[in-house]
Specification:
This protein is mostly beta strands and about 260 residues long. The chain has one domain (about 40-250): 3 Solenoid (Pectate Lyase C-like), CATH 2.160.20.80. The protein is about 5% helix and about 35% strand. The chain is built from two helices and 18 strands. It has helices at about 5-10, 240-250, and strands at about 35-40, 45, 60, 70-75, 80-85, 90-95, 100-105, 110-115, 125-135, 145-155, 165, 170, 175, 185, 190, 195, 205, 210. Strands 3, 4, 5, 6, 7, 8, 9, 10, 11, 12, 13, 14, 16 and 17 form a 14-stranded parallel sheet that branches. A two-stranded antiparallel sheet has the order 1-2. A hairpin with a 2-residue loop joins β1 (about 35-40) and β2 (about 45). The radius of gyration is 21 Å and the shape is elongated. It starts with a helix and ends in a 12-residue tail after the last helix.
Length: about 260
Amino acid sequence: MGQLEQENQVACPAAGPLPRADPSQPPSPRRWRPMESRTLGRIKIMLPDLTEPGLHLSSVESLESGRGTVQEFQYADANLRELDLAGTHLITGRITGLRAARVHFEAVNLHCVQLDACDLRSARWAGGKLTRVVFHNCRIMGAALSDLVLDHVLFDRCKLDYTAFTKVRAAGPVAFSECGLTEASLTDCDLSGAVMRDCALRDTEFGRGRYRGLDLRDNDLTALRGVASLNRALIDRAQQDQLTQALMTELDMTYGDDLNMP
């Protein structure tokens, strides 16, 4: 499959044909443009293209819809006591400055959506697929994320400390860049081929799951937990000592010469 075909599989929904000067003429085809992307390690993530010609994002006052779909939208600076969505599709949009004291998502799908500076701490998100989604500078601390499928998803400078990832699967490129994952836990996840770059992994627990090719380079691995679960993950040679220290701490190992100390 060529690069163009691969990119079309994750393309944002088209905003329609370009305007016609002469109505008697057939619609002009939309000009193909290279998609915006970001490369981290060995993967390239296709980003949501929210500035393409002909696309207009309409301001909305709610992410709820009687039809279950909100499309080509802009949602900004909402301060909510509760945000409860079920069976909702958010397609081609930008969410900025959202704050919610309680967040509960069930079977919520995002396609070509960017979230900036949102506070979704303690969110409960069960089920759904995220395609071409960026979380930038978001607080998602203490959340419970389960049964999610991620495809071309980037967490950029996000706070994910104390968050529980359960049965989260990378179906395409996924990256965590400069994120806090202190005391986060991953259980029954498939992060094969994903990238974690310059992240805080203190007491981050990797439980059972699939981590083949998970790129852990450029992180301090000294204090992570669940080293034995990281079968076939990718590290730098310089990180071998860090993993050794993490394993010894996890197993509560003791040096023999320490026993002779008064």
